[in-house]
Specification:
Elements lengths: L19 E4 L1 H9 L6 E5 L4 E5 L1 H4 L10 H11 L27 H7 L2 H11 L1 H10 L15
Parallel strand pairs: 1-3
Antiparallel strand pairs: 2-3
Helix pairs in contact: 3-5, 3-6
Amino acid sequence: MKRLPSVVIMLLASNAHALDWQDSPEVGKLFSNGCVQGTFVLYDIAADHLIWHNRVRAVTRFIGASTFKIPNSLIGLSAGAVKTVDEVLPYGGKRQPSKAWEQDMGLRSAIKISNVPVYQELARRIGLERMRDNVASISYGNGEIGTVADRF
């Protein structure tokens, strides 16, 4: 089995609490000026500390939702479920909540509009066992993916 390359670094994993956290007022100002709530975490390798904004939110667990499209894409490419990000995947032909989703497309286009049916097709191609193994190998969330490949 091909392993997913270690491109995703889980900074907020079990040992992140031991690192020095440094608040960034500059980053906080960007969020404030944009009138958005969010968080930012950057690991400074040279100083061995985390630069952050909104630490409480950074360590709070949320459902993966659309962010799962990133590991789903990487797993699909790594597993050979698609050859490239431009390989066209079918949306299935059914009526969708978003008219934009009602077209076949590659991952490059699908991620921009969060095309759920295309990502469900990718997950079916990956398969439940390979998806479970790869999600575990990158320590994504709680690792629970359920019993149906396309119902993440």
